[in-house]
Amino acid sequence: MGIYLSPEERDALMSRFDTNRDGNISDVEIYNVLSALNTRDLGNQAKESADIALKKLAAGAEGHSSMREYVRFLIKKFDFDNDGLVTFNELCDGIRSLNIHLTLKERQALMKALDTNSDGELTADELFNVLSKIDVKFSKAQLNDLVDNALKKIASGAEDYPSMSDYVKDLMNKFDSNYDGYISFEELTNGLRSLDINLTSQEK
User: Fold this and answer.
1) Which of 70, 148, 172, 180: disulfide with 64, CB 3.0–4.6 Å?
2) For 134-147, what is each residue's pLDDT tens digit?
3) Which of 79, 111, 112 is nearest to 94 (CA)?
4) CATH architecture under which domain 42-131 falls
């Protein structure tokens, strides 16, 4: 369903559903939990997540000579059947390859924002016209959320270690490529990338 959760989040979700604590979830338990939720705000949340994804997508142009050149790169990366157009499924696979993980509603909101003529396919011109107008600066709240999520993802790696100190020692070994006992900005960036945490310059 495009919902990516850490092991702790999955445990918490299981606990929320399994109201009688028998280790299994019945259809009655699912119904009771879901029907008690207010889902009216989900559309707004999907749009907000899509806006963040747009900013992350647009910020990728930092590593390219121009937005046009970056859009050519995106089309080449996303257009799996090489017909010059990006379908919804290709967009979903493409953003996943950039480590941008969205729910189905969020992916649909992103497609809607990019597909300006609503024909179900994205052209290079559509991508350029939308991405070139995006203000890639995150609000303070968005930035805090993104950094908190990155920190949680880093911390979740400690589950495979006997203690947090053992995990930190291993992180230092992985990140500190020049073995000076400190992690530089570049080493942090490369280390995060090795954990599949790709941040824009603003998030860093």
Assistant:
1) 70
2) 887 767 777 777 77
3) 79
4) Orthogonal Bundle (1.10)
Residue ranges of domains in the chain: 1-37, 42-131, 140-194
Could you give the C-alpha distances from 133 to 13, 23, 140, in angstroms and in order?
38, 50, 20
CB atoms inside a 10 Å sphere around CB 120 = 10
pTM: 0.53
CA distances from 47 to 32, 34, 44, 133 (A): 27, 21, 5, 17
| Residue 202: pLDDT band with limits 50, 70, 90 | very low
CB 195 within 8 Å of CB 157 = yes
